[in-house]
Design a protein that fits this description.
Elements lengths: L11 E6 L3 H10 L3 E3 L2 E6 L14 H8 L5 E6 L15 H14 L6 E6 L10 E3 L7 H11 L2 E8 L3 E8 L4 H8 L1 H5 L1 E8 H7 L2 H6 L4 E3 L9 E7 L2
Parallel strand pairs: 2-8, 4-5, 5-6, 7-11
Antiparallel strand pairs: 1-3, 7-8, 9-10, 9-11
């Protein structure tokens, strides 16, 4: 983070792992060689100032970058530090929130928004998710809330007991579309999907045990994937 306004112009892109207790449990149960979590991409765009929609403070450039994303997370300063200047010379989270909301509206940007307050003390603040970016407190919750904001679900694949992987998927998509996310060749040769609910799989103690108990279902390409589905795709060449 730069200490002065507009010293950071180009967006920084970070791909972060989604905290997932279910994935940890699958790893413990299956003992795979490789575990791959679902991820969310965050694009850090410099803050907007008053009249950004008119080009103030490189506003046009920043607004153009915001138009490319799927959701907005407003990280608003709540901490006091004389070595880090504030564009308006004072700390006022509500003022900053309202100003950014106005500039986004004037820039005709309508996206789901999560309001995050970056301050030293972690605790409930109405209308904000509170984090301490310096210590990392609250960041896991921020990642999970961003996941919800994007209306994503998580499904899992188990590859021969050697790899367990979590995948993010938009809600309302089909097994065929999920297979396409895993691999385009898999989607092209899609035959069926063997599906078991996470809770049923863990309750049974393993894939074969779940099959014996009749918990593994055969689903077609139009099946709508549910959060927590563990899927083995069957495909031909």
């Amino acid at each position: 983070m730069a200490a002065y306004p507009f010293t950071t112009i180009e967006p920084n892109v970070g791909v972060v792992e989604v905290p997932d207790e279910r994935l940890k449990k699958l790893r413990e149960m299956i003992g795979p060689e490789k575990v791959t979590p679902a991820v969310v991409k965050f694009i850090d765009i410099a803050g907007l100032v008053k009249d950004a929609h008119k080009g103030e403070g490189l506003g046009n450039q920043f607004l153009a970058k915001i138009r490319e994303v799927d959701a907005v997370i407003q990280v608003i300063r709540g901490f006091k530090d004389e070595s880090v200047s504030h564009y308006y010379g004072s700390i006022d989270p509500q003022r900053d929130k309202e100003m950014v909301d106005l500039e986004l509206a004037l820039g005709e940007i309508k996206k789901p928004t999560l309001y995050v307050l970056n301050q030293d003390e972690i605790g409930p603040v109405e209308g904000f998710l509170v984090v301490n970016a310096k210590t990392g407190e609250g960041v896991d919750e921020l990642i999970q809330e961003a996941y919800k904001l994007l209306d994503l679900l998580t499904f899992y694949t188990v590859k021969g007991g050697k790899e367990v992987r979590a995948w993010s998927l938009e809600k309302g998509l089909s097994a065929y579309e999920a297979s396409e996310k895993v691999h385009t060749d898999m989607a092209k040769g899609f035959v069926k999907a063997e599906v078991v609910d996470y809770d049923d799989l863990v309750g049974a103690g393993g894939w074969q045990e779940a099959k014996i108990k009749g918990k593994v279902r055969l689903e077609g390409r139009d099946y709508l994937v549910k959060d927590g589905d563990v899927i083995e795709f069957k495909f031909g060449k």
